[in-house]
Write a structure and sequence with these properties.
By secondary structure, the chain is of the alpha+beta class. 35% of the residues lie in helices and 24% in strands.
Length: 356
């Protein structure tokens, strides 16, 4: 029997197009002898459109943006998954990035419908999406990080000069300004002056009501893949060497204008320490399934946790699947493992008593 896999992608997010690319890549990697692929496209307006079963990879993401498909309610998933239904799904695979997908909202809906799904749960997804909450939890766990501060839009609008002064006193230059609840380098700016800082605030606040400002450090960017539930494992390390000033959206998803070095040249002791911090971070957020753990490594060997991404991209330029490929887990096997982990977590939750 084939596993009936429902893919959710698109979404109401600035990372909508990234999700389409992820979906295209995952579809191309799935073993059609093992899986039935049932796509559901979520438009930028939030409409859920059920497409036909896919029996081959797609050549263009436009083929995944169904114009004349069946528009459904998300609640329809609960009836579609019933064992008596011929179209029932065995597993939901959310391939959504950013708000309204990666932030725990869709995960919460799936939990309410009692459906098995791939990836992180509600808490890990929401905490991992909000960089401020994530860093606060990491600080509580004693995980090393660069200095940071944050603002909400109303505070900044009330006294922008005070906000800029606080950044200069607490963080200094260079610094990075980011929307708190976005990934994929959307809305991120590097600042070396007050003028650039003011422009960066305006840019970041277009994408979120909360922004985070982080200390800029001269360091290598090292990443590890983490896979598992209660007993997570780490991949080999990879290094990002951007040709530009930093690893921006265009370098990640459009022109591949960066070098990904896998495995990274990292001394054994440093790598082991990174693995420990990655797993510590994974458990601090109560993650399950997968994350990509991103680090800064300075010339003197200081390790800083940058962030974890609870739904890393699976595009041709993405680090996460490449890390596992070099660890000995090819793409189809990786997808299968994620499905197994999602089912394992679902079955574990079914053992929890809800009545006395």
């Amino acid at each position: 029997m084939k596993t009936k896999l429902c893919l959710l992608y698109g979404g109401k997010s600035a990372e909508h197009n990234v999700s389409l690319q992820t979906a295209k890549a995952v579809i191309g990697a799935l073993d059609l002898n093992k899986y039935e692929i049932h796509p559901i496209f979520i438009s930028t307006e939030g409409n859920w459109i059920k497409g036909p079963q896919l029996n081959a990879p797609v050549e263009d993401v436009k083929a995944l943006q169904f114009k004349h498909g069946e528009e459904i309610s998300p609640n329809a998933l609960s009836t579609s998954i019933a064992p008596s239904e011929s179209e029932g799904y065995d597993m939901i695979f959310p391939l959504l990035h950013g708000p309204n997908g990666e932030d725990g909202t869709v995960q919460g809906m799936l939990e309410l419908l009692n459906l098995p799904y791939v990836g992180n749960g509600v808490l890990a997804s929401s905490a991992g999406m909000d960089k401020v909450i994530m860093k606060n939890l990491f600080a509580q766990a004693g995980i090393p990080q660069v200095n940071y501060t944050w603002f909400i839009r109303s505070t900044w609008k009330g006294n922008p000069e005070s906000a800029y002064k606080q950044v200069e006193e607490v963080i200094g230059y260079p610094c990075f300004v980011k929307p708190a609840n976005l990934g994929s380098s959307v809305g991120i700016s590097k600042c070396t002056s007050r003028e650039e800082l003011a422009a960066a605030f305006r840019e970041a606040f277009q994408f979120d009501r909360k922004i985070i400002i982080e200390e800029g450090v001269k360091a290598r960017e090292i990443e590890l893949g983490v896979l598992g539930n209660d007993q997570p494992e780490c991949s080999v390390a990879g290094e990002i060497v951007p040709k530009k000033d930093f690893y921006d959206y265009k370098a990640k998803y459009e022109d591949g204008d960066t070098a990904l070095i896998i495995p990274a040249e990292v001394e054994g002791g440093i790598y082991n320490e990174m693995k420990e911090i990655a797993i510590q971070s994974y458990k601090a957020l109560d993650c399950s399934g997968l994350v990509r753990a991103d680090f800064f490594l300075t010339e003197d060997g200081q390790i800083y946790m940058n962030e974890v991404n609870t739904m890393p991209g699976f595009t041709p330029y993405s680090m996460f699947p490449l890390l596992w490929k070099h660890t000995g887990v090819d793409y189809p096997t990786l997808i299968g493992k994620l499905v197994e982990l999602g089912l394992e977590r679902y079955q574990d939750k079914q053992t929890i008593k809800h009545t006395m």
